[in-house]
Design brief:
The complex is a heterodimer of chains A (113) and B (110). Chain A is an all-beta fold and 113 residues long. Helices cover 0% and strands 58% of the residues of chain A.
Chain lengths: 113, 110
């Protein structure tokens, strides 16, 4: 998707290992978000950022941490991956919080074995 | 945070027919947004309707908003096979946190 890229696109990892997913934007948007999407649950917010070094938790933040040291990059880390974290992860960006649409990345499919 | 609930969960129609899906929500909003997700892809923003608007058009899409009933509908006219996707509504109130429903899965049969 234009202006936002996620890496890697696919990853298989073992239980107990740390994993970092990257979201990179070229839109200079202030707000960045990490979601996970699972069958039967829709999209659930993990963490979001409202500026460099400013982050907050979403509804399913346990087992995840984030960092944003630059405007353009928002990293999601699974501290010790578990099978329940097998999911598709989406990053989204927005210039503001009211009356703006959101731009989503193409997703990262993570499998924890 | 707020959540929109889409209805129906699944909808199957023939090409050329119109597709209507609905979204209900519970509290006051600033705006309501509709997104489309093709299989294996990220969500794509379709349209945003503000709380003081009642209807909005974008190409073959028509969105209505009834704040008294706390509901919205998305109409896709003259549907095409390429419209096959899941459609999500998102309601935005006073929080910057995004909460999406589970979506309506639309299948357009050739």
């Amino acid at each position: 998707d234009a202006g936002i890229t996620q890496s890697p696109r696919h990853k298989v990892t073992e239980t107990g290992t740390p994993v970092t997913l990257r979201c990179h934007q070229t839109e200079n948007h202030r707000y960045m978000y990490w979601y996970r999407q699972d069958p039967g649950h829709g999209l659930r917010l993990i963490h979001y950022s409202y500026g460099v070094k400013d982050t907050d938790k979403g509804e399913v933040s346990d087992g995840y941490s984030v960092s944003r040291s630059k405007t353009e990059d928002f990293l999601l880390t699974l501290e010790s991956a578990t099978s329940s974290q097998t999911s598709v992860y989406f990053c989204a960006i927005s210039p503001g919080t009211v009356n703006y649409g959101y731009t989503f990345g193409s997703g990262t499919r993570l499998t924890v074995v | 945070s707020q959540q929109g609930e889409e209805d129906p969960q699944a909808l199957s129609i023939q090409e050329g027919e119109n597709a209507t899906m609905n979204c209900s929500y519970k509290t006051s909003i600033n705006n309501l947004q509709w997104y489309r997700q093709n299989s294996g892809r990220g969500l794509v923003h379709l349209i945003l309707i503000r709380s003081n608007e009642r209807e909005k058009h974008s190409g073959r899409l028509r969105v209505t908003l009834d704040t008294s009933k706390k509901s919205s509908s998305l109409l896709i006219t003259a549907s095409r096979a390429a419209d096959t996707a899941s459609y999500f509504c998102y309601t935005q109130g006073g929080s910057e946190k995004l909460v999406f429903g589970k979506g309506t899965k639309l299948t357009v049969n050739p």
